[in-house]
Amino acid sequence: MKHLAKAILTMGLTHILSPGSLFAQPLSDDVGKQLVEAHCNACHTSDRIASSVGYNQTGWQHLIATMVNLDGNPNREKITAYLAKHFPPKSRRNPQLVEGDLSVTFEEWVVPTLGQRSRDPIEAPDGSIWWAGQWGNLIGSINPQTGEMREYPLPASAMPHTVTHDSNGNIWYTGNKNGTMGKLNPQTGEITEYKMPDPQAKDPHSAIFDDNGALWFTLQHSNMVGRLIPSTGEIKLVTMPTQDARPYGIKIDSEGTPWVACNGSNCLVKVDPTTMALSEYPLPNESTTVRRLDIADDGMIWYVNSGRGRLGRLNPDNGEVKEWPSPSGPKSHPYAIAVIGDAIWYNESGKRPDALVRFDRKNETFQSWPIPTGEGDAQIYAGIVRHMRPTHDGNLLIHQSATNRIILVKPEAQKN
């Protein structure tokens, strides 16, 4: 089925409702409580407020402005005063930052539609940057030279989890809520949907192309891995060997073999690209879970041990595993990961601010930085980074979905 998307240039501010609105936990009785419930809990549960780093009143105003437009609302002061009183700044989740010789800069873009949970940025062959606005049911692009942005509304209930691109410049997304894979032609705005052939395959998640043009993807809660051949539209699905393994991140090695991370079990899984037979590689400790993985030029599989707060490496030739404790400890919840040259980059999503961590795989040393949003006195810290990918020139694309930001990280020269 095809759908013609209308490209929207720098859209107006929009209030997006989330599907979790009905499950807010009780808030403290005080002046402003009902206003917070009406304006904040309409979009997300109040446990998201409680789990934040906390802010003063000015900080709450800056953060709310990235979610919903309260300009001219006579109750804004009461709302932010309530939040500042009951959710002030706190340090219990501060990361353990590690100093080092490298410096980085963060260049950010605020995407147009508020509350969309922008995520998973990727650089296309023409240098444009694409992202998925999951709660906004859209995908968008940035011209990094001019800052111009376009947003493309998707078919109903697609709720894209990620975006990727093919060799022809088409942009693909995973329809996480309507069981589809979708392709956008940026030149025409035309969208083509590919429905899952199995009604149990409900939640396409992460996706990547191999060099032969096949699109590989995971379906986390459906516990499946899929392959789509764009030239025919054929989709083949296989179920993970372990129940509730929850396949999450997926990458392709130099031989064209897909590797999958298990977010519900202590394993990585190798996929035969021809037969789609699945081979499990067990990882130490039953509490190990893996959000994402990446593959170095020497064939080593690097992964984040999200369940135990570690960085790990699997040698696929002999199954040998080595892990390093992340700087902020067992509750740091490493999430996204990318290999760039001799560096392994990942984030500690269990901390506030979210820490960006660099691991030198030759020297086995760490360095880390807080990930900012905004500038000067408007700077706030709110995670989390769910995916990161390198650019063609060795920089790093990340995001802050809670604050509508796409961020380009540029490693700089060594400090003197």
TrEMBL record:
InterPro entries given in the database record: Cyt_c-like_dom_sf, Vgb, WD40/YVTN_repeat-like_dom_sf
Keywords on record: Signal
Pfam family name, one: Vgb_lyase
Signal peptide: 1-24
Taxonomy, superkingdom: Bacteria
Stated name of the protein: Cytochrome C
Organism: Paraglaciecola mesophila
Organism ancestry: Bacteria, Pseudomonadati, Pseudomonadota, Gammaproteobacteria, Alteromonadales
